[in-house]
Specification:
The structure is a single chain. It contains 8 helices and no strands. The protein is mostly helical and about 180 residues long. α1 runs antiparallel to α7, α4 crosses α6 and α6 runs antiparallel to α7. The radius of gyration is 20 Å and the shape is flat. The two termini are about 25 Å apart.
Length: about 180
């Protein structure tokens, strides 16, 4: 939900006719409340009172374990795909099960592969945004290839949404970021 919110916000910022979009949102919002399934709206409402949500608290405990792993092995990490096996040793409050992940791509990558690998992961993201900016500047006055400009904005919105979602999902090995960067 937060990732979708980020993407919609960035698209809204790039749109030319903001007043039309605001009117559409104000008109559709009351209907969306009735159309969305109860399970979806119920889950969205847990954002406000996350202290009572076992899933959110489990994530926070997993993040604590991840930070302890990073402090223990800052350069090399604990080894790829070892988070699930070692999290309980770094934070007994973390739910220790075979499927445990950090639910944060950045913490899990830094904990498993070390800060050097995390630096290159961050560098990939930063250079992707930089390259999109450079493409926009290159084609801004080119009438024939002006179609590139909206695509750079769409890729920026997609990358931004992916980055927000990666704060709550372990996506460090998911291909989506690499496709967007390419």
């Amino acid at each position: 939900f937060l990732g979708m919110g980020m993407v919609l916000f960035l698209i809204f910022l790039r749109m030319r006719s903001k007043s039309l979009v605001l009117l559409l949102i104000l008109f559709m919002l009351p209907f969306l409340i009735f159309i969305l399934p109860y399970s979806y709206t119920d889950r969205i409402q847990t954002i406000n009172d996350y202290e009572e949500d076992a899933s959110a608290m489990g994530r926070l405990e997993a993040w604590k374990a991840g930070f302890k792993m990073i402090c223990a092995y800052p350069l090399t990490g604990i080894g790829l795909d070892n988070f699930r096996y070692l999290a309980g040793g770094y934070n007994p409050e973390a739910i220790h099960s075979k499927g445990l992940v950090a639910h944060n791509a950045y913490i899990e990558l830094a904990a498993e592969a070390g800060l050097i690998a995390f630096f290159f992961y961050a560098l990939l993201i930063i250079t992707s945004f930089r390259d999109l900016y450079k493409l926009r500047k290159k084609f801004i006055s080119d009438k024939e290839n002006y179609w590139v400009i909206p695509i750079t904005y769409l890729l920026e919105c997609s990358l931004s949404g992916y980055l927000v979602c990666s704060m709550f999902i372990s996506t460090e090995t998911f291909e989506g970021l690499y496709f967007l960067s390419a």
